[in-house]
Amino acid sequence: MTGLLLRRIASLVLTLLAVSALIFLVMDVLPGDPAAIMLGTSATPETLEALRRELGLDQPLVLRYLSWLAGVATGDLGMSYTYGVPVAGLIAERLVVTLPLAFLAILLSVAIAIPLGVASAARRNSVVDTAVGFLSQMFIAVPGFWVGLLLVLVFSVSFGWVPSGGFPGWQAGVLPALGALVLPAIALALPQAGVLTRVTRSAVIEVMNEDFVRTARAKGLPRRKALWRHAVPNALVPVVTILGLQFTFLIAGAVLVENVFNLPGLGRLALQALSQRDIIVMQDVVLFFAALVIVMNFLVDLSYLALDPRLRGRT
Amino acid sequence: MSAVAPSAPPRRGRTFAAALRRGLAHGKLWTGGLVIGFIGAIALLSLVWTPLPPAKLQIVQKLKPPLAQGLLGTDHLGRDVASMLMVGAWNSLSIAVLAVVMGALAGTLLGVAVAARRGWFEAIMMRANDVIFAVPPILSAMMLGALLGTGRPTAIIAIAVFMVPVFARVTASAALQVWSRDYVQAARGAGKGGIRITIDHVLPNIANQIIVQATIQLGLAILTEAGLSFLGLGMAPPAPTWGRMLADAQTYLGRAPWLAILPGLAIALTVLGFNMLGDGLRDLLDPRERGR
Fold first, then answer.
1. What is the C-alpha separation between A198 and A135, in angstroms, rounded?
2. Which residue of A61, A62, A94, A243 shows the fewest CB atoms closer than 10 Å?
3. Which domain holds residue A147?
4. Can you tell me the distance from the alpha carbon of A188 to that of A107, in angstroms, rounded to the nearest whole number?
5. In a domain, A283, yes or no
6. Which of residues 32-61 of A touch B (CB under 8 A)?
7. Could you tell me which CATH class the domain B21-289 is placed in?
């Protein structure tokens, strides 16, 4: 058990190192001099040279990577070129929007998907099943950011119930802040819910067909109880797996949805950094997102151990 | 996976359900095929004919609703929405198809290589897949865009790179199953090399799965391309794309809601078409995955 855990952690660290190296290499190997990009047309040879030195671009590649890595490990992500403040602070500031948004979206998608998926599996090939199948196909096909636009169109522009975007900040109170995140979270959650509904349905059906459920039913366990006591808990493993795999799409969706609703989150920070050619900020945000996806999948791996006792014995 | 055993006697309920599913599969296949055929035809048509040149500005006629000016109205610069949607179909489809073909080729190559070599090669490649999969196309397009500039090639590369791990994973697991079969082991024992086995036995057996996966990935590629161009990371203006039409529509939500509705419908319809086509193909071609 501890051996397994240690191996998982080692693999997590290796993956994180690999992704940081990849991002660093991409930014470095591709043509385009960050200093020149950041200075734009105002560059003179002297300012270019000075910025190169400031960014450490005159150092060899490996040294630069190691010093960036050491900085990341100690929470020093470098200075933003346009804002003139530490990137770590910028990310922390934006994280309080993006993380609650993502969390809310996951919660919502699970709250939509599990009942729909179970209902669909319980009445296989019924009208309910067909309707849910159709609905989940729709959810998957519809771009989340477009759902966001439509929500704004209906609830802000037509009804005038909620502001069309923006974020009051948590200091304005938990409720107004959460209120500003509800529509974006719905937009973000629907495509996820579509995928999760299908996974829940097929997982529940699979478990219901297994011998132990058949035995329990033969011994007189009502179908309802078999469903909720056996099928649903067992179906959680694939659902959680997909939730982890989908996290990378959730991040991508968050970048888009933040843009629709004018939320000052990490995705917008990265886009602003791109348009202001603030390469360091972009590099750090991309690394942060990638690390988030990897850690999320690591946690999913760990959750198997909690959800599926059979795996604990394996090494 | 006991359902694979041929000795299981067919049961009434099961054969009926199977028949129903087959019918459903064909229904999906046809619906998806028709939708994609329709969108594809429009995309091709846009190469030779559109009602108006999509970039033609008629400021006097700006923000006219559907049927008031042209079939689907005009945008904030008085451009014909129907013409823009048509050219947008071509732009979306061509980027998605190119990206998926590139990703599928690279991913399949990687997948069959992993299945043939195993060992440390497999471990490293699969870990590399996780790493690439952790950087969604929107983020890689930003990195590439910062250095190379945004545009069609950047969008295609960003989407294609993300497709590689998906295809590598699907191919590797399918190929490993083929490798575990007795006749492949026999061929190996008879001295057939890894590359020969891959070409003679593995690829023909997994081709269906790759085709199914590619169809489904096309839907995802359409969604991703729309997202990229919504953020200004896709094709450069003035080329009309569904994503940028939506981005432009944001400012005029109150006055011209059709500008926000129509391109989204086009995206959703295309993705739905590819997904149904993929589902139908899977039910038809890949009996193991049936009913999932």
1. 10
2. A62
3. 88-311
4. 11
5. yes
6. 32, 37
7. mainly alpha
